[in-house]
Amino acid sequence: MKALVYGGPGIKSWTDVPDPVIQNPTDAIVRLDTTTICGTDLHILKGDVPAVTKGRILGHEGVGKITAVGSSVTNFKVGDRVIISCIKSCGSCSNCKIGLYSHCLGEEGASGMGWILGHLIDGTQAEFVRVPYAENSLYKLPVSVTDEEGVMLSDIFPTGFEIGVQYGGVKPGDVVAVIGAGPVGIAAIATAGLYGAAKIIAIDLDANRLEKSREFGATDTVLSGTATWKKDVFALTDGAGVDVAIEAVGVPTTFSMATEIVRPGGHVANVGVHGKEVPLHLESLWIQNIFLSMGLVNTNTTPMLLKLIEGKKLPAQKLVTHRFNFDQFLEAYDTFSRAAETKALKVAIAR
Ligand code: NAD
Ligand code: ZN
After folding, report:
1. Which of 45, 129, 200, 232 is the most exposed place for a label (fewest CB within 10 A)?
2. Looking at ligand 1, which atom is closest to the CA of residue 345?
3. Cα–Cα dist 47/45, whole Å
4. Residue 30 CA to ligand 1 centre (angstroms)
5. Is 2-155+299-350 a CATH 3.40.50.300 domain?
6. Amino acid 48: pLDDT
7. Which residues of the chain are modeled with pLDDT < 70?
């Protein structure tokens, strides 16, 4: 089969590799119909994620059909159309039992963590992929949900919702600010309304993304990087700051921005993946009664989000701005990596 193979920092190729086979009774093989690229894949290609070794097939998002199941997989059969979750979960370890799939202790990858696809084992940017712990890591896709909608549930939507909105404790009437209107920030914007946010303020450096965020439920937008950005945010609150500040970028500046706009008693929910040391000013924050959260997505809300997409309550499909086929994989990477110029949010790559 063909797959997108990591060849070390800065090197990737769409090339021939052996087909995956069932290795454990809990595995399934999925023939990909649609996959996509995540910002994390770009981090890997820069060499920021040293656990990814040369020869690894990248990708942790995808939708496809099952072509083989291991002997202990009983709730899926060959031919089932499924979403592949970015997090594998054995479903039976102590962490999975409490819904903390991100820290699944199931042996595969020997990592004690749920994100292994396209990281510690071969991923979904391929014609076929082996999915470990298939029973709990795959989700059946209803016929009314498109491949492109389904792919947004592998990672983006659960991340924005769980680590942004749920961890941020959004409640009815809240003013919520989302810093970073990339796919993950937009997923937080689109789901903040589920808990009754009264105002959702999108903050980004990119005016195009701010405009786009309104289509997903942002009620107000603030251009970042200006002299007045903070004043602009406070002008949209009662002057006290926002109830919940969601950081969806992953750099020290935006984390600090979140702590500067949160009101006393409010929440800062960090979603961004940080590669650099981030200052935390407890000396000024402690007296503000701030709740601070962070985490790796669990994807335990995937079934719920899938129902909302099925019921046309979440405009997941609108995140797809560019479409490619498997033969154009490198072109898809090029478009996605130049998002500011190409206006790309998510690229869908289909068979
Ligand atoms: P992205 O790069 O597409 O979007 C980031 C956005 O932040 C861009 O629109 C950019 O213009 C904006 N931005 C950059 N600097 C800014 C600034 N100073 N002020 C305001 N906006 C600024 O990324 P994404 O795919 O949306 O992902 C967002 C973050 O979430 C990344 O760090 C990603 O690694 C992380 N992530 C976390 C998890 C998790 O489990 N916690 C899962 C997936 C992704
Ligand atoms: Zn587990």
Report:
1. 232
2. 3
3. 5
4. 29
5. no
6. 82
7. 108-111
